[in-house]
Design brief:
With 59 residues, the chain is of the alpha+beta class. The protein has a single domain, classed as Macrophage Migration Inhibitory Factor (2-Layer Sandwich), CATH 3.30.429. The chain is built from 1 helix and 4 strands; from the N terminus they run βαβββ. The radius of gyration is 14 Å and the shape is elongated.
Length: 59
C-alpha cells in the first residue's frame, strides 16, 4: 500500500483537499502502475509558525 503524505500550511477548503487527494492518487497510480484503490494520501496542516526555510521561521 503506497502512502503519500502532504504537509502544508493551513488554507485549503475541504473541496480543494478532495481535489488534491484525487489528483495525487491519479498521478501516482498512472506513474507506478498501481491500482488507485491501493493508494493512500494524507494531508497534514502545519501552522506557519512551525515552518522554517533557510533558518528563518515563516510565522
Amino acid at each position: 500500500m503506497p502512502l503519500i503524505q502532504i504537509s502544508q500550511t493551513p488554507g485549503l477548503t475541504t473541496e480543494q483537499k478532495t481535489e488534491v487527494i484525487a489528483a495525487v492518487t491519479r498521478a501516482y497510480a498512472e506513474a507506478s502502475g498501481k491500482n488507485e484503490s491501493s493508494v493512500w494520501v494524507t494531508i497534514t496542516e502545519v501552522p506557519r509558525e512551525n515552518w522554517g526555510v533557510g533558518g528563518t521561521p515563516l510565522g
